[in-house]
Amino acid sequence: MSTIVLLLVTGLGLGALYFLVASGLSLIYGLMGVLNFAHGSFLTLGAFAGWEAARRMGADNWGTFAASLLIGAAVGGAFAAFTELALIRPLYERHIEQVLVTVGLSLASVALFEGIWGTDPDFITGPAWFRQTTNVLGATVPNDRFVTIVVAVLVLLGMVLFLKKTRYGMVIRAGVENRAMVTALGIDVRKAFTLVFTIGGAAAGMGGVLASHYFGYVSPLLGGSLLIFAFIVTVIGGLGSLTGAAVASVVVGILQQFANFYWGVGDFVVIVLLAVVLLTRPNGLMGKKA
Asked: How many domains are contained in the chain?
């Protein structure tokens, strides 16, 4: 029983990481129709920014962790906004060029990060509580998993409230449905779309900081490895569905943990799940029909 509980909680923690990356992918595609293959770069840069902030502050406490999380989110959001303004905005409605540019940016950013921070991973420590464990129904669970889960839930609630309750959220949803009409009313939809990219990048930046604590290190390849599973989660949940991304993140994270523990084939099982979903529900679990 304790093993099952441990796998469930750690699977939820892993799924929370996937969601923090996939939420930005899903939001950007659902509202803007952009497949952003450079999204992992936002995560990696946010992780390095948080690591640098924590290293320079010196103390491994909650204040340092909170500051690194906010700095990671700010840097990830700023890099995402720059990417949208400089590279994506001139290429709206030109999807092939968008893919080529974002793939190129992802490859170039890895080389840039390696040039700045080196190719070897840099190990990271957090508050002492992170290195402790909590007993849950007989299972000894690392405490950092709980922080990752809580942050992911807060990000999900924040995105949903932003889209449904704020003026910019309504402008974004209206712009997706009928961009010409919103523009005719004197509203600059481009600013709203830049904000969407910024929010997605901030979520990825936070995910990068949390991933560095989850795995215990930060490296130039961190974002690329998580981006693969984030894309799988986004496709399984349904492109453009934030709720679908949340559900798929939980399913993929838990399934991967169980399959790895019992059979050592977690990645393979996730790929099989992706194939089954695409064959039976091509639009994903909660995706809308084109």
From this structure: 1
